[in-house]
Amino acid sequence: MSRKGVELSTLRRGLEILGLFSKETLLLDTASIAERMGLSKSTVYKYVQTLEGSGFLVREKSGRFFKLGPRLLELASVAQNPFRLVDVSYPILQELLDRTNETALLATIMGNRAVCLSKVESNHNLKLTYEIGAAKPLHAGASAQVLLAGLDESTQKKILTSMTLVRFTERTITSPKQLSSRLKQIRKDGFAVSRGELDEGTFAVAAPILSGSGHVMASLSLGGPIHRFDHDKERGYIDLVQEGARKIAELLK
Known about the structure:
47% of the residues lie in helices and 19% in strands.
């Protein structure tokens, strides 16, 4: 089976496990899930670990049983209006453009890629240009790294072990150890700055947009040619994207 086929099979199994829960079945243990799924307990345990690490399942007090977690509540909220994040974010993107005249982007993580959800582009002749829906690697560039840094440890580790750290420029991080260190620093700082990691001669500054439960829903970023980016602008742009990310998070509550 191809990697894509394996990923789809894993996704299907995960959804099937979540589907076992209902108003009548609020709690399930690994043995019960295995019996209902017709799988071994060791196989189910791997799926459950991933779902727990991603916040889709949580353990009740005894530690034996699982129940649906907060991520599903977030998805339910998004499902009620799938375009809400984009709609709410657009004025903030426009504000960033007005204040900097650099391209502003909204991105989210899908599988092991960062996907552009919305953008406003600089009116400079030389600028960053991204297509809405374009998928980028998670290990290169501030916008993607903010998303990767925001994952829980087990999910992050799983994605990292499945990724090939492709080199795009001389500045691309291709060492797993170096990338892990970079992600820890991003998580601590609450922002990321990159210079020419994905595209030569460019910069990007990004910050995470957090849900009410603290999960990273998306990243907000500014980017442009490196010759328009100096130390003073770096500090100012960091403040702007962090402020913008907080505004979006507040509007989504």
